Structures are given as C-alpha cells and as structure tokens.
Amino acid sequence: MTLIACLHSAESNIALFDAACPPGARLVHVARPDLLAAAEAAGGLTPPIRDATRDALFALACEADVEVVLLTCSTLGPSVEGIASPIPCLRVDAALAQAATRDGGRVAVLCTVATTLAPTEALFATAAAKTGATLEVSLVAGAWNARKAGDLATYHGLIAAAAEAAYAAGATEVALAQASMAPAAALCRGRVPLTSPAIGLAAAMAAA
C-alpha cells in the first residue's frame, strides 16, 4: 500500500482526492487554506508564501511511511521546484499538463482563480513545447466568486459551460487546471475535459 500525503489549500478538495484514490494507495491529508488566502491577497505566489508552502511539504515528506507528497493547489504549485525533500514532492497539475498536451493539437486550459493563471500557463507551456501543442489559458468568468459564496452548483455549471464552449470552438483537448473544478467534468455533455485528481494520483503512484 503506497502512502501518499496530499497538501491542499481547500478542505473541500479532500473528498475529491479520496474519491479518486487508486487501488493500492492510501491518502493522508493536510489542508492549508491560509496559504491560498495569502497568495490571493498578495496577488500571487510570493517568496514568503513559497517558503511556507515548502515547509509544509517538507513536514509531510518527513512523516513516517509517507512515500510521496502531492501538492494539489495550482497557485502554490511552483513551490515544489527545487525543494530539498527526502522523497518525491509533486504538483498535481504537472501530470495534467503532460496528459493534455501529449498528442499536440489545440489545448484549452480553464482556471477559476486569477492567481493560478501565470503558474498554470508556465507549466502547460513547458509541456506543450515538447509536443507542439498550442495553448489557450483562460479564466472562467464569475466562477470563483460563486465558489467563495458557497454556490458550488453555479461554480461547476459555469466551468462545464466553458469546457463545452472550448470544445465547440475547436479545442482538441480541454483541461480543468484546478482540482476544485473536477466535479464539473461530470456535467459536460459530449466530450469530457481532463481533471487533475485521478491523473495526479496516478503520477504520484508511479513516482513512489
């Protein structure tokens, strides 16, 4: 049984990852919504927030029996780069970027938090450069305000509509960049966009 430690920036993401947990894996969770709140207030991932995120990741990496650490927040994702950890520390959206761009083509990447746009675009651009995929990274208007108001039905509905529109506009693949967006995939009619929980956990299993 592979023990994967997940660092979340939202308590609600714990259930999403538990539901996506693959056979042979066991998950432990730590939620740090304060880190995302700080990044939103600062307008992005600042060095102090990056350091605090790395400290949280390192603490999980040092827990007994943990074999891999998975950072599930896209805004905080770049914090894994260069971390001195005794075990693999992965960002959940790295595997998503690879999956979305694997076959080249035109890839639409949807976000709902403004602070996620820059790190997401950088991550997907690196993956796309290897396959010749073209990217369009965009924000789903109004979605994050709905989530902050507790209106998850509207949050997921807006995301699903944006994904359907992206496919209709010619995207060969659509990726929902943030883990919290994953439930919207089930609302899509026609093609289903890629989401990060299952893809990220599979990558964690492979890295353990």
TrEMBL record:
At the top level of its lineage, which domain of life is listed? Bacteria
Q: Indicate what this protein is called per its UniProt record.
A: Asp/Glu racemase
Origin organism of this chain? Plastoroseomonas arctica
